[in-house]
Amino acid sequence: MKTSYILMIVTIVAKLFGLLREKALAYFFGTAILADVFLVAFQIPMTFTNVISGATANGYIPIYDKVKQSSSKKDADLFTSNLTNIIFVVSFIISIIGIVFARPLVKVMAIGFKAEELELCVLITRIAMLSLGATSVFSIFKAYLQIERKFIVSVAHAIVMNIIIIISMWISSKFGYIYLGIGILVAFVFQYIIFLPYIKKSGYRHKFGFDFEDENLKAMLKIIVPVLISTSVIELNFIISKSIASSLFEGGISTLNYAYKLQSFVTGIVITSITTAVYPEMARLGALKDYNGLRKQTSEAIFTMALLVIPASVGLFIFAEPIVKLLFVGGAFSVDDAKVTALALSFYAIGIIGIGIREIISRVFYTIMDAKRPVINSVIMVVLNIVLSISFAKMWGIKGLAFATSVSFIVGAILIVLSLKKKLGSIITKTTTYDIFKIIISTIIMAVLSKFAFNAILNSLGSNLSLIIAIVVAGISYIISLLIFRPSEINKLIGKIKK
């Protein structure tokens, strides 16, 4: 798991720039309707990109590894060229369709938008949709770089994207809102420019042409549709929540977005880093049908995820309001905005562990070429999220939407673990269960001590400084607790740190 920890450090930097983007959005636009317009216009092409890239990457990596194992790297690279050429044409067609039908897309994404904000959002969305061809193609090259173990550059592109978007927000606040759309387009396309030298160094040479009879392409297409459905669940759940939020109150979308971004800060650093690092190895083990090795790899990934996600989730839950105040209050974002956002964040935090388990287990199914079960799991989660979102939003408003999403992820995680147990046997061993129990005890100790420290110094030092000190107390107490209880994997981790 050494690669996972290195990747987390790089991802933290990338995510910090993501938080700076959200801070810039809060500063310039707060929770006003323009913030909602930007978020919807940003989310529509991003959703297409995430769904297409998620499906192609998760389907591409095991097929590439299979071709490389059975034939050669040259043939695997040829398969990559053919795939990217086809994906570019498909995504270009989708972008044209998206531009033509931008209005109904916006209406689905934000059912509460009225005439003026609807027209502005449609315009920005049409500009941003022009990026889809580039983002879809480079999503494959991103997976290619991960196979080549160029993990750092494969996540660092987000820094470039966020810098461009922040600049476009400042320009649009001064010279007109059309620059938001231009900024999204430029950011989406030019963020990948840093990939080019690394792709060249890997020895890859692109070949133009189309081979629809390629057996490897056909094999990938057989799993890509189920993977497409499965990987779109997170995006779809958030789309449902945002659409309902647009009808609750003005600024509902942006409020939910700020909370979601803080939650995704944790999922991006920990969960995405772990899955990015272990998936190529999982694919290799799956291609070799080394199921014992696959089970061991998965167990280690779940432990590493739990080691970091459980305390982070609890920290987000108990310190939601001071975290939001520290990061976002200022400019157009008020203290009252922070209180509402913090409510949503605390309920989003509950579901992070479910996201982590589901993301890891889903990839196990992809490596053994079984995408059916993740699809069934995805459908159950979406239906559950829709039903709960409608019900909870009526009872609890914005926090009900966040809670509904969290419940759907937890239920999905439980069901997919049970499905994998039937397929490959138990992944979460007794040792892993015992280790996670130790992590939970350590987290409880951390939560009690850090909350006590925060409350003790709040009146004298203020919220921001008290939060920083509480985080330090949380980190120290959690590490000491782990050293005392000694989960089995901790000894390995200590050895790697010493090395």
UniProtKB/TrEMBL annotation:
Alphabetic keyword roster: Cell membrane, Cell shape, Cell wall biogenesis/degradation, Membrane, Peptidoglycan synthesis, Transmembrane, Transmembrane helix, Transport
Transmembrane regions listed in the UniProt entry: 83-103, 123-144, 151-171, 177-199, 219-240, 260-280, 301-320, 340-361, 373-392, 398-418, 439-458, 464-485
Record bears the keyword Phosphoprotein: no
Pathway assignment: Cell wall biogenesis; peptidoglycan biosynthesis
CDD domains, per the entry: MATE_MurJ_like
InterPro entries: Lipid_II_flippase_MurJ/MviN, MurJ
Localization terms from the record: Cell membrane
Signal peptide: none
Bilayer disposition of the protein: Multi-pass membrane protein
Domain of life: Bacteria
Keyword Cell wall biogenesis/degradation recorded: yes
Pfam families to which the protein is assigned, alphabetical: MurJ
Protein family membership: Belongs to the MurJ/MviN family.
Known role: Involved in peptidoglycan biosynthesis. Transports lipid-linked peptidoglycan precursors from the inner to the outer leaflet of the cytoplasmic membrane.
Protein name listed in UniProt: Probable lipid II flippase MurJ
Organism (species): Peptoniphilus stercorisuis
Lineage: Bacteria, Bacillati, Bacillota, Tissierellia, Tissierellales
